[in-house]
From TrEMBL:
The keyword Acetylation does not apply. Its EC number is 2.4.1.187. It comes from Paenibacillus macquariensis. The keyword Transferase applies. The lineage of its organism: Bacteria, Bacillati, Bacillota, Bacilli, Bacillales. It catalyses: UDP-N-acetyl-alpha-D-mannosamine + N-acetyl-alpha-D-glucosaminyl-di-trans,octa-cis-undecaprenyl diphosphate = N-acetyl-beta-D-mannosaminyl-(1->4)-N-acetyl-alpha-D-glucosaminyl di-trans,octa-cis-undecaprenyl diphosphate + UDP + H(+). Belongs to the glycosyltransferase 26 family. TagA/TarA subfamily. Keywords: Cell wall biogenesis/degradation, Glycosyltransferase, Teichoic acid biosynthesis, Transferase. PANTHER family: PTHR34136, UDP-N-ACETYL-D-MANNOSAMINURONIC ACID TRANSFERASE. Catalyzes the conversion of GlcNAc-PP-undecaprenol into ManNAc-GlcNAc-PP-undecaprenol, the first committed lipid intermediate in the de novo synthesis of teichoic acid. Pathway: Cell wall biogenesis; teichoic acid biosynthesis. It comes from the Bacteria. This is N-acetylglucosaminyldiphosphoundecaprenol N-acetyl-beta-D-mannosaminyltransferase.
Amino acid sequence: MNDKSLREVPTVPIFGIEVCKWGMSDTVKYLTEVITSRTPHQVITANPIMVMTAMKDPNYRTVMEQAELIVPDGTGVVWAANVGGEPVQERVAGFDLLHELMGAGESEHWRIYLLGSTSEVIQETASRLQLQYPGIIIAGYRDGFFGPKEDDIVIKQIRDTNPDILLVARGADTQEPWIFRYKEQLAVPIMMGVGGSFDIISGKTKRAPILFQKLRSEWLYRLLSEPTRFRRMLALPQFVVKVLRDKGNVTKPN
């Protein structure tokens, strides 16, 4: 699917999942070229939980293997690349990438469609992003409460607004497979799952304080804030153990 005019993306395989080596600046430059080329790209912001899920679930692995761009969102992914001897330039956090894209799109008046979360959160997110980045165009938005029977309607609503970027917040286990299933029909240059970013932008929840970010412990802050995430977070120590145990195979190609 990739346009031949686009640059080759340098990647490192993390247990077979090809993760981009670029830092934030090069990633944003590349995605700017993607929008110019109008080449549909599914962008996945990968963390250790997603990598572990891909190793256990063949369907989820297919989603990740066929994504046009995977950035190292989780610090664990950055660490694993270092352990495997093929470091990435830096962590490219999905929340920060979202904002960098909004800033880059102001001068070009990029059209943005927001999909997911609750009606209140999505409306507030749209309003705040428009205020923060007056040059972008919020082409449309709708909440994430719809089932498979409504997918065709949602896809048409998105396509009718002709967005440059589609941001989807429906939970990591849902948003990536949904984008993958419909990316050909959606045909949006950048389609990216953003998890809980709308909750933070709207003010519903807070991002981890700078100290947690600097200590690379945002996961710990989220766990302390949302103890119900405990079961999901069990994948983190499992990932660490696997990386240390299979040190020589972390960055081996499939």
